[in-house]
Amino acid sequence: MTAPSVALQRRALVGVLLTVVMWGANVVLLKALLGGTNAETINVGRFVIAGSVLVTLSVRAHGWPRWDARTWLAVAAVGFLGNTLFQAFFLTAIRANPAGVGGLVTGVVPVLVLPLGLLLGQKVSGRQAAGVAVAFAGLLGLLAVTLQPGATVSLGGLGWVLAAAGAWASYTLFNRPLTAQLGALPFVAFSLLLGCLPYLLWAVPHLHDLNQLAPLTVLGIVVSALGANVLAYLAWANGANILGAARTAVWNTLAPAVALLLSAAVLHERLAGAVWVAAGVILLGAAWANWPEQKPKVGETALSPPL
Predict the structure, then answer these.
(1) Where is the EamA domain (predicted)?
(2) Exposure pattern of 238-262 as b/e (b: 16+ CB <10 Å)?
(3) Would you say residue 48 lies in a domain?
(4) pLDDT tens per residue across all 307 residues of the chain
(5) How many domains are contained in the chain?
(6) 29 part of a folded domain
(7) Domain presence at residue 109
(8) Range of 220's domain?
(9) What's the pTM?
C-alpha cells in the first residue's frame, strides 16, 4: 500500500486543525446558546440534524447495516454512553462552569481512560502513565481552586466536568472494537441514532417552542450540529485515516485551549491565574499521554478520542 502524498497529508492536517478549532469554538457557542434556550432544546436539535445527516451519509456509502441483534444492542448501549449520558453531562458542565472550564472535558478524558483501561486488562506505556499523572496533578490543582472563597469554579461544576469526561472515556474504550468491526461512519451514525433515543424521550416534555426562539439561537444550533458533529467528525476521521490515529489524537488537546482563549475573547470570561495554570498542566499531561509512540506495543491502551 503506497503512502499518502505530501499534499494529501497536508490537507488532512489542515482538516484536523480546523476540527480542533470547531470543537473548541463549539463549547463557547453552546455556552452562548444556553442563554437563549435550555439544554434539552439544544441537544435535541443537534441530535436530529447531525443524526439525519450522518445516517444518510452512512447508508449512501455503505448501505443499510445487516448486523445481528447482538451487534445492534451493543451499538445502542455504547451510543447511550456517548450521546445520552455524555451530552446531558456535557451541557450541564458548560452551564455550571465558565465555558473555558467546561471545555476541559476532553483534557480530563485521558486521566480517566487509563484506570478504566487497566480494569479491562489493557496495557499502558510508561509515557502514557506519566502524562496521565501530570494531568491528574493539574486536576488536583483545579480542585484546590474550587475550595477558595469566591472561586469562579465550584466543586459541583467540576463534578459535572468529571462526569462528562467519565462518560466520554467509557464511550472511547468500548467503541474501539465496534468501530474496527463495523466501520467508523456506520458505527458513529447508528450509535448516535440509537444512543440518543432515551435522551429524546426524556427531553421532549422540556422542549421550548421553536417559534419562540430567536433566529440566532436556531442558527447556532444548526451550526453546532453541522460543524462540531458532522463536518468536524468527517475531517477528523479523514485525518486519522491518512495521518494515523496516534498522530491525529495529540492535536485534540488543543481544543480545550481554543475554548479557553475564545471564552476570554468572546464571552469576556475572567478566570483566575490558578485556573489557567491548572488547565495548562492538564492539557500538557493529556498531550504527553497522547503523544504517538514510534512503535506502538500490542495491546497498549490508546488515548485518542473516538472516531
Answers:
(1) 12-143, 157-289
(2) bbbebbebbbbbbbbbbbbbbbbeb
(3) yes
(4) 566 777 888 888 888 889 889 999 999 999 999 999 999 999 999 999 999 999 999 999 999 999 999 999 999 999 999 999 999 999 999 999 999 999 998 888 877 877 777 777 777 788 888 888 898 898 899 889 888 877 888 889 999 999 999 998 888 888 878 888 998 899 999 999 999 999 999 999 999 988 889 999 999 999 999 999 999 888 887 787 787 766 677 777 888 999 999 999 999 998 888 899 999 999 888 888 777 665 544 443 343 443 3
(5) 1
(6) yes
(7) yes
(8) 6-290
(9) 0.86
